[in-house]
Amino acid sequence: MSSAQPALEVESIRKMYTEHDGVREVSLQLAQGEFLTLLGPSGSGKTTALMAVAGLTDLDSGSIRVSGKDVTKLPPSQRDLGVTFQNYALFPHLSVRENLAFPLKTQKKVKGRALSQKVDSMLDLIGLGHAAERRPKELSGGQQQRVALGRALIYEPDLLLMDEPLGALDRNLREQMQREIKRIQRELKATVLYVTHDRDEAMSMSDQVCIMNAGRIAQIDPPQKIYHEPNSEFVARFLGDANIFGARVKSKNADDYVVELTSGAATGLTSHRTFSEGDDVRIMCRPERTEIVPAGEEGAYVRARIEHISYYGNCFRVNGECLDTGASVIVETQQHSLPEIGATIGLRWAEESAVLLGEG
Amino acid sequence: MVSTQTVPVEHMTAVTVRPKKRRLSWTQRFSLWGSLGYLAAFFVIPVGALVLNSFQTVDGWTLTNYAQVLSDGYYLGIFWETVRIGFISTTITILLSYPVAAFISRLSNRGVALVMVFVILPYFTNTVVRTFAWIVILGREGALNSFLIAAGIIPEPLQMLYNELGVMVGLVYVFLPLAILIQFAVMRGIDTNLLRAAETMGASKVRAFFKVYLPLSLPGTIAAALLVFIECVGAYITPALMGGQGNTMVAQIIERQVRMGLDFGTAAAVVVILGVVVSGIYVLYDRITGMTKLFEDNS
Q1: Total number of domains constituting chain A
Q2: Using CA atoms, how far apart are residues A103 and A50, in angstroms rounded to an integer?
Q3: Mean pLDDT, to the nearest integer, of B66-94?
Q4: What are the residues whose beta carbons fall under 8 Å from the beta carbon of A262, sequence distance 6 or more?
Q5: Residues A257 and A345 occupy one common structural domain
Q6: Is residue A2 one of the residues assigned to a domain?
Q7: Is A179 contained in some domain?
Q8: Is position B13 within any domain?
Q9: Is B11's pLDDT higher than 80?
Q10: Which among A157, A221, A272, A337 could bridge A82 via Cys, Cβ 3.0 to 4.6 Å?
Q11: Within the 168-187 window of chain A, which residues sit less than 8 Å (CB to CB) from chain B?
Q12: Does residue A322 share a domain with residue A257?
């Protein structure tokens, strides 16, 4: 990552539309060939951040460098970026071929034969050779998306920005297009900054996921890490179901902590974040890493009453209520002999499965 | 949104069954015969009567009316003059209305409502009254001349009325709102993201305009030009009130023939010829630019 020039460096950019709406402070870096997704609820500033990189939104402050070149003051036409828009923004008066040729003709870097060869090979890559002469409105949503992608990549920009590209497609098509986008991205070794509010999309496509909340970055990490080691309750809950319990730090030895849960049980775990003895903290454990044990068993950290059991084919999901705190808990298990609804169960987890979260 | 569902084969065969003759419901019949009746009463019959009239004189069926009109340099001159003034006025109208319509189309819904009131406002007044207002402004002792003299820009009043300039000012003024409204309707449907997209691909704002906005807005502009042109060549009030001796237009000679000569046959022939000329221009326009594009869904 550190060897080459980063494809994108965003430094403390700020753009507030109103007091609450916009980007408060965002800094991030993107290495060549990396796929980074801005993920967040609507209004978290992810699209604003993307549009700022594209140059379609001017900044209050901060700076943006693309391949080492400061583009903060440059218009979009001089940033050498590819952008795909939510509604594709294909030119309705031009055919698929003409849409793909548009940026090449505009930039005048290639002409004549070379230009039409480039268009042909892009048509192959996006699998639309048979539809080259059609107008955008004669294409399906997925095909339109592929034209938009091809048009943004045909001039080999330093960086591809994608704003919720799959938002308008239905579920099945969306998964197919995710694979398609990844295939094309890998083939062209494109660097991508991607915006979505769909966490599955973010998790399945990205090298790095950047969770945004209220105009700031909550956490940037690879998908696995951000899922299992969130740094806040917001991130934990945004990425999926989470069991979160109140606790207090009893003792620590370097990164090894012993904490006491509200239920009175004690557990050890490792955290690279710094807490002091006596700190109020919380413990987070994902449902599929939480185990059900008999209530009285030694080593059960928390006791809960089962409220609901649902079968999902590959697992059971057990919803319950924590007896000590009333917090809701959720367990995903493949275990088939489950206690009945209303029964009291114990919950535990392996030490390495739990994460310490700060208060708030 | 295009559905990706595939229709099973057995369902498709059901669709290809020969359609039964359907009886129209009462409401369908009413709207069908109603609109046909309306067309007949207010379009087919009067226009038909006019066309028949053009082939008649007191001596019966004849082509004399056409021969008379088409062989007379006076009539031909007026036709030419009418088309020429119509063409120039239309060009000026389009040049003035295009930027205004483009500007309004970018406003918020509230903004559009507000500004459109000012565009439509002139329609609340009768054309004759509005034309007299221009006479007050452009006359020898009018507001504009007085201002220009007072400001020391010109030593003597300019002749702005009862000549070609007067006719054109009047025509442009009367048809400007029409041109703005038609072009606005098309421009409002243009996705501004397209311009942003063009810019991200390296296009300057000027290039984005010429390569994206202009072609997408052109159908509206052509439709507006066509309608304004047709209105201009058929205009009566404006040339009558603001034109001079040398600026007689077709509608005026039609009126003169009926009122002074009671020559309905010749008047009808002039109308039919005018109609053919305008239709010809429409067909030409359609061939070159494809008017049908206007009715395509560009979203």
Answers
A1: 2
A2: 20
A3: 92
A4: A245, A246, A247, A324, A325
A5: yes
A6: no
A7: yes
A8: no
A9: no
A10: A157
A11: 168, 170, 172-173
A12: yes
pLDDT at B176: 95
User: Chain A residues with CB inside 8 Å of B201's CB?
Assistant: 77, 82, 102-103, 106-107, 151-152, 155
Residue to substitute from A100, A102, A134, A151, interface B, most B β-carbons within 10 A: A102
- Contacts of residue B39, Cβ cutoff 8 Å, sequence gap at least 6: none
Residue B171, min C-alpha distance to chain A (Å): 33
A271 near A355, Cβ under 8 Å?
A: yes
Does residue B12 form part of some domain? no
Which residue shows structure tokens 């003409």?
A98
Q: Residue A98 is part of a domain; what is its CATH number?
A: 3.40.50.300
State the average pLDDT over residues A118-123: 95
A79 CB near a chain B CB, below 8 Å?
yes
Residues 6+ apart with CB under 8 A from B211: A102, A106, B198, B203
The answer as to whether B177 is a domain residue is yes
pLDDT digits (tens, 9 = 90+) for A91-115: 999 999 999 999 999 999 898 999 9
Domain extent at residue B217: 66-295
Q: What is the ipTM of this complex?
A: 0.82
Same domain (yes/no): A133, A258: no
Q: Name the closest residue on chain A to residue B205, using Cα atoms.
A: A77
Q: How confident is the model at residue B297 (pLDDT cuts 50, 70, 90)?
A: very low
The domain that contains B109 carries what CATH number?
1.10.3720.10
pLDDT band at B15 (very low <50, low <70, confident <90, very high): very low
d(CA A341, CA A309): 7
Domain that holds residue A99: 8-233
Query: Which residues 6+ apart lie within 8 Å of B280 measured at CB?
Result: none
Whether A3 is covered by a domain: the verdict is: no
Rounded average pLDDT over A205-234? 94
